[in-house]
Amino acid sequence: MTPQANIVVIGTGGTIAGQGNAASNTAAYRCSVLGIDDVLGAIPQVSALANLRAEQLLQTGSENFDNRHLLAIGTRVAELLEQRDVDGVVIAHGTDTIEETAYFLHLTLKSIKPVVVVGSMRPPSAMSSDAALNLYDAIAVAAHPSSRAIGTLVVANEEIHTARDVVKNNSFKIEAFGSPYGPLGYVIEGRPRYYRHPSRTHTVATPWSIDALDTLPQVDIVYGYGALEAQTVRDIAARGRGIIYVGTGNGNVAAHLIEPLRDAARRGVVVVRASRTGSGIVLHNGAQPDDEYGWLTVEDQIPAKARILLSLALTRTDVAQELQAAFEHY
Ligand code: DGL
């Protein structure tokens, strides 16, 4: 008989730790109230998948997560992965920002052991909750050797997504997760099946290690629209080291906002054009003369993950070409 993998399940809150008054409460309930021991205790079937240890790291909705929460989660996961008797980690997480935490781990962990971030759209108390199966599947994925060395994963609805690509794209439906290029694979009857692997650099091959990070530079996201006032852009640009400007379509910038963003770039604030569309490539020097204006572009990354990537990139360089290269490589 093959020995079971040792998996640590970390609780951080979210709907997967939520509770409604009635089973019909699929969308109105209290978040982050059940401890991870209780959430796991309700799924005794997981003991057939792995030797499990649970720990409660946080207990809050992921909409509250700032850079310190990301660093705290990353630090704890890295400590666990270094332990010889830990084969993988599952993080139970609110779904709102699962894609950001997962991407941060994908870029900063220095281990090939599987790390899976999982949430649910309905609390365990709701009719047809996705909590039990999502967590069961996440543990199955983390425990399986085929999940090693492919970066941080997000499991939902029997699909396995790479942290780089996965996006929450619906506010209430169970089918709320998708990747623009499709999932890496499926998990069925407690076994993952992979059909492709991430092609962009991650985990052990990136220059960022969670062990070397104490803080992250402030990068803000500005959602662009024609009625956005130039002064608002100037005010935001005065605060941090970078701005992800979420333009319309192919990262278009309204004419009256070009000068405030050029000013920001002249003062050393990194300006990166992104797109409101949610998918596709923002072509460098396409809709705008980025090199002339001193701006960068996100390539195909969504604004929330572009913020994470730029924050990390700024810990090592201020050089525009090197920052742009990060968007092409990760
Ligand atoms: N409070 C939200 C969060 O933690 C709930 C969303 C969810 O977990 O589905 O992200």
Key descriptive features of the protein:
alpha/beta, 2 domains, 8-stranded mixed sheet, 9 helices, 14 strands, 28% helix, binds D-glutamic acid
Assigned CATH class of the largest domain: Alpha Beta
Name the structural class.
alpha/beta
- Named at the architecture level, the CATH assignment of the largest domain is 3-Layer(aba) Sandwich
- The multimeric state of the shown protein is single chain
For the largest beta-sheet, the strand count, sense and barrel status come to: 8 strands, mixed
The gross shape turns out to be globular
CATH superfamily of the largest domain: L-asparaginase, N-terminal domain
Query: Proportion of β residues?
Result: 15-25%
Reading the helices and strands in chain order gives EHEHEHEHEEEEEEEHEHEHEHH
Number of strands: 14
Helical segment count: 9
Count of all domains: 2
The helix content is 25-40%
**Which ligands, by name, code or SMILES, are bound?**
D-glutamic acid
Mean pLDDT across all residues, rounded? 98
CATH fold-level topology of the largest domain: Rossmann fold
Pick out the low-confidence regions.
none
Q: Output the strand order for the largest sheet.
A: 2-1-3-4-5-6-9-10
Gyration radius from CA atoms, angstroms: 20 Å
Q: End-to-end distance, in Å?
A: 39 Å
